[in-house]
Amino acid sequence: MLAACATVAASQTRVPSRGELLYDNHCIECHSTQMHWRDQRLATDWSSLKAQVRRWQATAHLGWSEEDIDAVTRHLNETIYRYPPPRQSARLDSRHR
Question: Which superkingdom is the protein from (predicted)?
Fold first, then answer.
């Protein structure tokens, strides 16, 4: 019975994304979620959010790859910002023309 409970619990454990792991290991010390909700945030869309991720990883000398920057941008966007990703933005713009 205990083995069955352990199996169910293990199957329900969420595996964090690469972006979440990178953010939690390198950014959360200085950037609490409160930082992202401030009125004067610098990220106002997907592109500016990605630019801020790129900027701060460079400032911290993390040496992230483009894939790492994308992963952290996706993580922040999915959990906090909810901006339309680039492809969605392009489709929405073309519909309004």
Answer: Bacteria
Quote the domain boundaries for residue 82: 17-95
Total number of domains constituting the chain? 1
Q: How confident is the model at residue 63 (pLDDT cuts 50, 70, 90)?
A: very high
- Is 28 in a helix, a strand, or coil? coil
CATH number, position 61: 1.10.760
Judge contact between 46 and 77, C-beta under 8 A: yes
Evaluate whether 20 touches 78 at the Cβ level (below 8 Å). Answer: no
Distance of CA 72 to the CA centre of its chain: 4
Task: Give the pLDDT confidence of 68-82 residue by residue, as tens digits.
Answer: 999 999 999 999 999
Residue 34 lies inside a defined structural domain of this protein: yes
